[in-house]
Amino acid sequence: MAVLPIIKYPDRRLKSKSRPIKSIDKDIERLLDDMAETMYEAPGVGLAAPQVGVNVRAIVVDISVREESTAGLIKLLNPAIIFSEGQQVGEEGCLSLPGFSSLVKRKDLIKVEGLNEKGEEMEIECSGLLSRVLQHEIDHLNGILFIDRLSRLKRELLKKRIDRVFAMESYAAF
Ligand code: ZN
What's the pTM? Predict the structure, then answer.
């Protein structure tokens, strides 16, 4: 297992739609293991493959560092939300946008289906933080960042701050 570099906004790979995984081989198994290690090292509660520069539909989630949960480590391929109900609002950040967070409106109760690392079908029904994290990671597979979920005004304000900080960072790197 290895900790992979996490790519940061505004890398265009974060804006791309990721492709479905057709078969599970050693490369996919290794990718999922490396993604889990990278998430724990960060530390974060979720990570999507495009965040390590691989545009395939794979996510890992473990919310137990933030709140007590029996869900443990979830590795999910080709996840799809098949049902959703209600709304929740909560603070959200992203490992690809370090240092920034905002309140984001999400669905509350969701039902997600996908494949585990053995290729077996699985279904997760959840609400609260786990639901929020799953929606955030599935968004990554469609090239959507949490800032894209904000109202236009909030998004523009946050983007200005983000662009200023990232411009400063690249300046400092020269
Ligand atoms: Zn993220």
Answer: 0.94
